[in-house]
From TrEMBL:
This is Dephospho-CoA kinase. ATP binds at residues 12-17. It comes from Pseudidiomarina andamanensis. Its main location: cytoplasm. The gene is coaE. GO terms for molecular function: ATP binding; dephospho-CoA kinase activity.
Length: 204
């Protein structure tokens, strides 16, 4: 099996910036967020199930998912959130496994904001946490998504705590500065993961 590095971090921590730097080294990135978005593509079984449950109200005029409506709905109705998770999680996991299996690089990165919460760490040989303070999370996410502090705070509260993430980490990248401070950290870890991946291959 391929050597898998799980990358996680809270909202606004800069996961995408970090995984893009790994990608520049030719590393395949399997992104759980991207997979989760595509799970709801038109014609797929997930969207069909959503429409069967909620009717046309859950769709936009073009027949695609009305994400804002659904987000609002699960925010107000916890039982809907459970139903949606039961529907999407197995489909997402199946896609993740398939993409990890197909990856053609010395090691592969699984990027997932809920890596720890959804126990995806079991698929990983190493866990890399992108760590920032809560104040930075709030500031960055508000600037990026133009949302209220309350909304960002509720997302932070729903994710694993900073302590839980750091406990699960094999490696940590601190991302309080700008991208120039990330590059050397990524290069160092890239070298480490290449060595570990090689060592894993030679024992199999």
């Amino acid at each position: 099996m391929m050597f898998v590095v799980g990358v996680t971090g809270g909202i606004g921590s800069g996961k995408t910036t970090v995984t893009n730097l790994f990608q520049q080294h030719g590393i395949v990135i399997v992104d759980a967020d991207v997979i989760a978005r595509h799970i709801m593509d038109k014609g797929g079984e997930a969207l069909t199930a959503v429409e069967a449950r909620y009717g046309k109200e859950a769709l936009l005029d073009d027949g695609s998912l009305n994400r804002a409506w659904l987000r609002e709905r699960i925010f107000k109705h916890p039982e809907d959130k459970h139903w949606l998770n039961d529907l999407t999680h197995p489909l997402i996991r199946e896609q993740i496994l398939s993409q990890l299996h197909q990856a053609q690089s010395p090691y592969v990165i699984l990027s997932a904001p809920l890596l720890i919460e959804n126990r995806l760490t079991k698929l990983c040989d190493r866990v890399l946490v992108i760590d920032v303070s809560e104040a930075t999370q709030l500031q960055r996410t508000q600037q990026r998504d133009d949302v209220s502090e309350d909304q960002v705070q509720s997302i932070i509260n729903a994710q694993a705590s900073r302590e839980q993430r750091l406990q699960a980490a094999d490696n940590i990248i601190r991302n309080e500065g700008d991208e120039s401070e990330l590059t050397p950290q990524v290069e160092k870890l890239h070298e480490l993961y290449l060595r570990l991946a090689l060592a894993k291959q030679s024992t199999h």
